[in-house]
Design brief:
Layout lengths: L1 H11 L11 E2 L1 H10 L7 E15 L16 E14 L2 E5 L2 E5 L44 E5 L4 E6 L2 E6 L4 E2 L18 E6 L3 E3 L2 E13 L11 E12 L6 E13 L4 H4 L26 E12 L4 E9 L6 H6 L5 E10 L8 E10 L25 E2 L2 E2 L9 E10 L3 E12 L1 H5 L12 E13 L3 E13 L17 E12 L1
Antiparallel strand pairs: 1-9, 2-3, 2-25, 3-4, 3-5, 4-7, 5-6, 7-8, 8-10, 10-12, 11-12, 12-13, 13-14, 14-15, 15-16, 16-17, 17-18, 18-21, 19-20, 21-22, 22-23, 23-24, 24-25
Helix pairs in contact: 1-2
Length: 508
């Protein structure tokens, strides 16, 4: 039960990610490990997946990161996740639906003086920052009414066949070593319906231990992108990990994702092999060229995590591109073309008085346009000319929570005891920076940066009734929605003070 509670917290956003956490993680893979620990696998085994209740309140603006189906707009928001899992021999069934309720209170919309309205037939709530060729389904607000929605959530049906597990699911998956941002697949958006094949456990070979996951699924459009909400996309993803046979604490991995327009959910199976196909370079056009040519788009990443348990230290990195190099020569000349990356580390000190420890962590993610824009046409992360909804599901990014063309820095220091912990943190996010810098606004476009600076406090308490976690930040969003007319250098524009509180409870 303790392991099940741990992974529910991990999938829905835990205060800390423990050292040596898996780099490919989901609820079903963790519960499968728990079930393997039990005796008598031939009999039916039931397991209660304890409900997690999470409450969020934003005082002035939406602030919603890595929270699955929930979109935490202004005002109060709540989601409830919980259910049961069953195992009968090789068959496993996990039913963990997710209920979302959000006030979705009004706030000042992006001013059309600074950001022209999106082209018809786009919704009035669709992104005004991505109306040209670099398109994405990422509404600035999800309508003007309260949100009440039930999702299948972290539900899965699967069967073990030899060394593999095969199944269908709507659960979130997190691929990569990052704590705050995963570049290819994260829990920021609602889970999408998909079929999968994956290794049950790492497969031992003379070259080391290998794990793999292959997912094919269907992505859905939000109701606030355009008038036709029936359009679908197929997505095919593959990840492979490798660890040395000796206990070195090192894991290295590769992931690729390919998406394409589709008409029916069954088309995802037809497009399963797209993850191995060349998709070309659909975004290599000037930003103001609004040409949309339906087709495939992709991104890929390389990542590693290296843990040193005896020293209490761990570091990780993920490097990715949205374009495959044209050739080896092209890669040598422009290795950073369309790149994005995440760098991070965490450290836990020696035991102090009262069995306490200090825990420090930092993570930096950069998805803004690379400097090769001076020589080569370039797109923006998660947007697309070939797939107009971009790399999203139901209006939220499938990858890094900070979204397209953004960057972030995160540092934290926690004081940790066996039964409780408390800590301070600081977040800086530069939102959608490509959306302004790629526009034909002359020099002014380079100075109108939309930046959040959020000092915060967080903590958790483990009691006999369950675990309570809290996260509170109170800071500033500078030049909100790029509303600053001063050009270079900048002077005060529209600045907003936003206070964000999240409380989560998981009973024993």
């Amino acid at each position: 039960m303790r392991r099940a509670l741990f992974l529910i917290a991990l999938v829905l956003g835990a205060p800390r990610v423990p050292a040596q956490a898996p780099v490919l993680r989901s609820l079903s893979s963790h519960l499968a490990f728990v079930a393997n620990d039990t005796n008598g696998a031939r009999r039916t085994h039931w397991q209660f997946v304890a409900p997690t209740v999470r409450f969020t309140h934003n005082s002035a603006l939406p602030y919603s990161l890595n929270d699955g189906a929930l979109w935490a707009g202004r005002g109060a928001s709540m989601d409830l996740t919980g259910g049961v899992s069953m195992r009968a021999g090789p068959v496993r069934l996990i039913l963990v639906p997710e209920l979302v309720v959000a006030a979705n209170d009004s706030f000042a919309r992006p001013d059309i003086y600074y950001n022209p309205p999106p082209p018809l037939p786009r919704s009035e709530y669709s992104s005004p920052f991505h109306g040209n060729g670099q398109s994405i389904d990422m509404p600035w607000r999800f309508g003007n009414a309260p949100i009440r929605q039930l999702y299948p959530g972290q539900s899965t049906a699967m069967v073990d066949v030899g060394l593999a597990s095969i199944g269908v699911s709507t659960e979130n998956e997190w691929w990569g070593p990052g704590m705050r941002n995963a570049l290819v697949l994260s829990n920021h958006a609602p889970g999408f319906e998909h079929a999968f094949v994956r290794t049950r456990d790492p497969i031992a070979t003379p070259l080391g231990n290998f794990g793999a996951r292959w997912i094919v699924g269907t992505l859905r459009e939000s109701r606030y992108f355009d008038v036709d909400t029936s359009k679908l996309r197929s997505i095919s993803l593959l990840a492979v990990t490798w660890t040395p046979r000796q206990d070195s604490g090192l894991v290295v991995g590769f992931a690729r994702s390919v998406l394409a327009p589709s008409r029916r959910p069954i088309d995802a199976l037809r497009d399963a092999w797209q993850v191995f196909a060349d998709v070309g370079h659909p975004n290599a056009r000037p930003y103001l060229d609004s040409t949309i040519t339906p087709g495939r788009d992709q991104l890929f990443s390389l990542f590693l995590r290296w843990s040193f348990p005896k020293d209490g230290f761990e570091t990780w990195a993920e490097w990715a591109r949205t374009e495959v190099p044209l050739s080896l020569r092209d890669f040598i000349i422009y290795p950073n073309h369309t790149q994005g990356y995440t760098l991070g580390l965490q450290w836990t000190g020696d035991t102090l008085r009262w069995n306490a420890r200090l825990h420090a962590e930092a993570e930096f993610t950069f998805l803004e346009q690379s400097t090769t824009y001076r020589h080569r046409e370039i797109g923006s992360w998660y947007t697309s000319r070939a797939v107009v909804q971009g790399y999203t599901n139901r209006g939220q990014s499938l990858g890094a929570a900070i979204g397209p063309g953004s960057s972030s820095q995160w540092i934290a220091l926690d004081y940790v005891l066996p039964s409780w912990e408390v800590g301070l943190n600081l977040t800086r996010i530069r939102w959608m920076n490509d959306a302004m810098s790629q526009r034909d606004y002359g020099l002014s476009g380079w100075c109108q940066h939309d930046v959040s600076l959020l000092p915060g406090i967080r903590g958790a308490a483990r009691t006999r009734f369950g675990t309570v976690a809290m996260d509170y930040s109170a800071g500033w969003r500078i030049n909100t929605f790029f509303e600053n007319t001063s050009g270079c250098p900048t002077s005060p524009g529209r600045d907003e003070n936003n206070k964000s509180l999240t409380i989560a409870f998981t009973p024993r």
